[in-house]
Amino acid sequence: MSHKALPGFRDFYPAEYAVRAHITDTWRRVVRRFGFMEYDGPPLEPLELYTQKSGEEIVGQLYNFEDKGGRAVALRPEMTPTFARMVAARAQALRKPVRWFAVPQLFRYERQQKGRLREHFQLNVDIVGETDVLADAELLSIAIDICRALGLTRADFFARVSDRRLLNALLAHLQIDEAKWPAVYAVLDKLERQPREVSLDKLREAGLSDATCDAVLGFGALQTVDAIRAVYGASAEVSAHLDTFAEYAAHLDALGVGEYLRLDLTIVRGLAYYTGIVFELFDAQGEFRAICGGGRYDRLLLGLGGVDLPALGFGMGDVVLGELLKARGKLEAVAAEGADVWLVPHEGTPVPHVLTVASCLRGADVSVEYVLNAEKLRTRKSGAQLKDAQKAGARYALVFRESHTAELVPLIESALAPADRLLVDTSGWRADAPDAAALAPLLTALGR
Amino acid sequence: MSHKALPGFRDFYPAEYAVRAHITDTWRRVVRRFGFMEYDGPPLEPLELYTQKSGEEIVGQLYNFEDKGGRAVALRPEMTPTFARMVAARAQALRKPVRWFAVPQLFRYERQQKGRLREHFQLNVDIVGETDVLADAELLSIAIDICRALGLTRADFFARVSDRRLLNALLAHLQIDEAKWPAVYAVLDKLERQPREVSLDKLREAGLSDATCDAVLGFGALQTVDAIRAVYGASAEVSAHLDTFAEYAAHLDALGVGEYLRLDLTIVRGLAYYTGIVFELFDAQGEFRAICGGGRYDRLLLGLGGVDLPALGFGMGDVVLGELLKARGKLEAVAAEGADVWLVPHEGTPVPHVLTVASCLRGADVSVEYVLNAEKLRTRKSGAQLKDAQKAGARYALVFRESHTAELVPLIESALAPADRLLVDTSGWRADAPDAAALAPLLTALGR
Lengths: 448, 448
Known about the structure:
Two copies of one chain form a homodimer.
Chain A: H1 14-33, E1 37-38, E2 44-46, H2 48-54, E3 64-66, E4 72-75, H3 80-89, E5 98-102, E6 105-107, E7 119-128, H4 133-149, E8 157-163, H5 164-173, H6 181-189, H7 196-205, H8 210-217, H9 225-232, H10 236-254, E9 261-263, E10 277-283, E11 292-296, H11 300-305, E12 311-317, H12 318-327, E13 341-344, H13 351-363, E14 368-369, H14 374-379, H15 382-391, E15 396-400, E16 405-410, E17 422-425, H16 436-445
Parallel strand pairs in A: 1-5, 8-9, 13-14, 13-15
Antiparallel strand pairs in A: 2-4, 3-4, 5-7, 6-7, 7-12, 8-10, 10-11, 11-12, 15-16, 16-17
Helix pairs in contact in A: 1-4, 4-10, 5-10, 7-8, 9-10
């Protein structure tokens, strides 16, 4: 038999699962601080849910098939269509703004490349029903707070932010035909990654004059509201969008994350999708792909779900983020944890007494292990059982002495050593009615 | 566009997600008390992983297809084959006993019936590398502790337990041909659910004498070790297995869960699979299918993974368990929670100050909401914003007064009212450097 997962799929052994849980737990903890509620949908959906949004060409990247009832179905490649379907189905009843998040596993049949997986976990955070730029500011501050909660600082990452409306106003002001905008967006999107001459050629091919080409190629250097205003402030429309952007920046300052913001007109993202402020979080050293991307998509719910509600959201995957955290040394303390307490019986300790002590501690939410074999529990030397405990990564051993007393012994560095040698009298402990007073000193010593 | 999930698949709106999270969080919390570590595998696996264990006939119940690389694949219908694959791949290196758990979503193309879903979440708890009956006792005590942690008591559920080795010894003692055992097992499995005459006919068809039929039909009434010993104690083999079962029962007593145990020889479970003690948890009122099932499967890893290690485990799904919890009123307090604190600005409160206070509180892991629109934050009457907070289910409002003070007001019954009217001075709060001393009284009032 094959001892391997499918190519592009991951086995999560406890060590790898601990990293995944560290990331997803942090996602949940931070997003909840902002009052968001978790939802989920099916990992398998009707195929048309995706082709309706992205066209038939997406099918080539999907895990799609016909189910036994003859339905065309696909493993979800993204969460937004499910989100749109669910919001649309209860659009009237839902309190606005809707503030929801999800942590789905997503699937794409990508061509196999180094580091490219065919599944990943992705945090999706969305707000529906609010047009004000304060919602945009709150959304970005969530993404930034997550990265900070994971230990990253301004030296590690920043946010590149643009506004599709501002960009449109600039192109309109430069009198570029709307039919040419997609070509211009495509050039802007690659401005930092391709030689200036290539960009210039493509703009010329699109039919822009040399002066207009120069102006567009200069967008990358305009990295503040003031810089854009100095050149294009004469346009009332541009000026109005700059005012909005300045308000956005002021909200981010008040939310304590202003230093992460970089206005960057070369951030474009999905053409047919976004309608307002768009953003991506990037590794400051430029080693990795974007950590996160999102923005305002005010027309998508109408197209996908048939309800006309403004919306904005972002997605953050576990793979690039995990690579960045690892490269920056932020995962070194993350590991599958051993038990809080390992029980080491004395030669004369009856097995039922060991089990009773285990049960009492577990009842207080302390994780407890011991040698899972009655004969060994009775006969294996205490020293050998203490070594079992150490190998298993237990924080403490509870070493039974004579007359039903037991001593708490710290085993790993991060375990707090009790101020004095802690001897507990366990003689009165009962599994069916744990004695809180008898347990208390032990729980205190364990830092509970 | 269709506004529905596929038949048999669930949308989890926040209210339904809260129930799912209540169950899965409790699973994780309790299983960790026993020192188990979480793992996961891919939801999509090679088809042969399942046909190898269950034969080609399982394909009719699977979501299987050919992927774009021509591989025969299937959505996982159960976790054990993945578990076996992962353990086998690192069998040498893993510390024994392996104590792992997982909470996978599983998929079966079941014929649509009332309440039958095509996906569910299932806790899988497994121990590998220990033959002693103490491991069997620990395993059952985990399943029982989970149900207790969810609020169920001895009045709500109990465990039916048998031992395949004991049953085999009884059949051997009755001199029933081993070739007839599968037929006898099939009758035992349905003993409680089909009329005695039907069972009798089937045993006669299998070629059992009338006296032997009577003996087998009497198995259901033998519900204690002593009762079985009284009839079959003369067999040394039966007697040895009864000793083991008595030891198992004693361990469960010491672990504080002995009262849940009922010896029941009609619990059979998978024929080709289990080799020792097997168990199922049942609703005491007999309304629902089994909540949970498992046991010892000492030969499965050899067959599936090519490593000869003893093993035992159980699976517990979220669907039947959820139905039982609901029927017994144990989900009434479970709901998607509103924010801890809703900020209600005074007419003169500057918006940046509201955002700064939000940011400071969120930095202390307090969840905070406010009206997500700067204009409304400035102009909407405090009374109306307080109503927003109540509708959203916030626990407290922090109502801004003049001169940067704010009052904490409890909004829901379960919120602790501060002993005195709590007025906080927020004038010195800064988002980039929250002042722990300034926050402290508020955190104390919030029960942090």
